[in-house]
Amino acid sequence: MSYWKWEPAFSVGIAVIDDQHKRIIAYINELGTISIYHDKEKVRTVLLALMDYTVSHLAFEERLMEEAGYPKLEAHKQIHLSFIERIHFFQERYENGEDISKQLMTELQMWLINHIQNDDTDYKEVVQAMLHKKEGQMNDGWLTTLIDKFFK
Ligand SMILES: [Fe+2]
Asked: Which sequence ranges form a coiled-coil region, renumbered to this chain (predicted)?
């Protein structure tokens, strides 16, 4: 897989979500780069970080949708759940000694593009409105606290 560049077309219009999607893309690219050198320990570190970060990102997204009162939260959670199960399946295969890097990268890329452009765009307006409201209430700290909670 060649180097994957984030494009403005991937933006969901919410900076904090875009940043996390960019981070996932960066992990995928890193995995692609180090896979060439067959350094098993490095691959392991990035692979586990990528899977862990992706799962945290999905949980973070759900918390935002919940706070915003997004009406299709349950449906979106189901989509996340089936993807998390998929990631766990990759994790299991990896622990059993299978080389899953390439397949994981390809699948994650396809999933992310599709998810951003369809499912995530759907919650855009309600989540944006919720975040603007927090800002208006001078409650910007809410988002920072939430990021710390999910990513530390
Ligand atoms: Fe999502």
From this structure: none
- In terms of C-beta density within 10 A (0-12 exposed, 13-18 middle, 19 or more buried), how is residue 36 classed? exposed
Calculate how far, in angstroms, residue 113's C-alpha sits from the geometric centre of ligand 1: 11
Summarize pLDDT for 137-151 with one digit per residue, the tens. 888 789 999 999 999
d(CA 109, ligand 1 centre) in Å:
14
Please tell me the distance between residue 139's alpha carbon and the centre of ligand 1 in angstroms. Answer: 24
Q: What is the Å distance from ligand 1's center to 55 Cα?
A: 10
pLDDT tens per residue, range 18-65: 999 999 999 999 988 887 777 788 888 988 899 899 999 999 999 999
Secondary-structure class of domain 14-151 per CATH: mainly alpha
Residues 14/127, Cβ–Cβ less than 8 Å = yes
